[in-house]
TrEMBL record:
<keyword id="KW-0472">Membrane</keyword>
<comment type="function">
    <text>Peptidoglycan polymerase that catalyzes glycan chain elongation from lipid-linked precursors.</text>
</comment>
<dbReference type="GO" id="GO:0009274">
    <property type="term" value="C:peptidoglycan-based cell wall"/>
</dbReference>
<keyword id="KW-0997">Cell inner membrane</keyword>
<dbReference type="Pfam" id="PF00912">
    <property type="entry name" value="Transgly"/>
</dbReference>
<keyword id="KW-0961">Cell wall biogenesis/degradation</keyword>
<dbReference type="GO" id="GO:0016763">
    <property type="term" value="F:pentosyltransferase activity"/>
</dbReference>
<keyword id="KW-1133">Transmembrane helix</keyword>
<keyword id="KW-0133">Cell shape</keyword>
<dbReference type="GO" id="GO:0071555">
    <property type="term" value="P:cell wall organization"/>
</dbReference>
<comment type="similarity">
    <text>Belongs to the glycosyltransferase 51 family.</text>
</comment>
<dbReference type="GO" id="GO:0008360">
    <property type="term" value="P:regulation of cell shape"/>
</dbReference>
<dbReference type="GO" id="GO:0009252">
    <property type="term" value="P:peptidoglycan biosynthetic process"/>
</dbReference>
<keyword id="KW-0808">Transferase</keyword>
<keyword id="KW-0328">Glycosyltransferase</keyword>
<protein>
    <recommendedName>
        <fullName>Biosynthetic peptidoglycan transglycosylase</fullName>
        <ecNumber>2.4.99.28</ecNumber>
    </recommendedName>
</protein>
<keyword id="KW-1003">Cell membrane</keyword>
Length: 243
């Protein structure tokens, strides 16, 4: 085909909606820019507006039942706040969203053929709940890190924990501390005892398999260890509860 005809054909193909290579690259760049901008924009919105998690959204789309009752951090028992920090992320108040030491240990364990144990901080778990999917993959884990750093830069520690405690899953369709306290103990989250809080906190790694109201022997042992850990933890809660 002569060059002039090829050029005309390329123009016609573009007009009929068939992207040229240049057009495809432009669209791809635009998509990447949007994907990069959405999380920080949503995070700024979430600093004042109660968010929902991707898991909650997935249930809404499937017309599945969701129980979530947003409450401010002040209406959540300090017992639960302490238990969750002690159980999930003892360095929450001093890290910047990522526990690099724990992460390095897990990478070393993986390189030695050992089974990694996670190393997710509360901020990383909040990032996963807000922006990512809910399976175990190294791709998702890698995406958690920059998102957690962003959350830590844009939100206060209190707001991060407030969001986490209001979107965390505590059973089939049960999201957040208030819904969990009502479902499992028949009381508001602000009235949880230290023992009840410990059962809820230690259910978080397996919310569909652990019943805080009727814990198994193993779950009960974890809760007892959590109570002891909270008592001996020292000043690891100051960023949210003060001295």
């Amino acid at each position: 085909m002569p060059r002039a005809e090829a050029k005309t054909d390329k123009t016609l193909r573009s007009k009929h909606g068939i992207l040229t290579w240049t057009g495809f690259r432009r669209r791809l760049v635009q998509l990447l820019v949007v994907l990069l901008l959405v999380p920080p924009i949503l995070t700024v919105i979430y600093s004042v507006v109660p968010p929902v998690s991707t898991l909650m959204l997935a249930r809404y789309v499937q017309f599945l039942w969701v129980d979530r009752q947003w409450v401010p951090l002040e209406d959540i028992s300090p017992n639960l706040i302490r238990s969750v920090i002690a159980s999930e992320d003892g360095r929450f108040c001093i890290s910047h969203g990522v526990d690099w030491g724990a992460l390095r240990e897990q990478v070393e364990a993986l390189s030695e053929g050992e089974r990694p144990r996670g190393a997710s901080t509360i901020t990383m778990q909040t990032a996963k709940n807000l922006f990512l999917w809910n399976d175990r993959s190294y791709i998702r884990k890698g995406m958690e890190i920059p998102l957690a750093l962003m959350l830590d830069a844009l939100l206060t520690k209190k707001r991060i924990l407030e969001i986490y405690l209001n979107v965390a899953e505590w059973g089939e369709g049960i999201f957040g501390a208030e819904a969990a306290a009502q479902a499992w103990f028949g009381k508001p989250a602000k009235d949880l005892s230290s023992r009840e809080a410990a059962r809820l906190a230690t259910a978080l790694p397996n919310p569909l398999g652990r019943n805080p109201a009727k814990p198994s022997a193993g779950h009960q042992r974890l809760a007892s260890k959590n109570v002891a850990r909270v008592r001996s933890a020292g000043p690891i809660f100051e960023c949210v509860l003060g001295k």
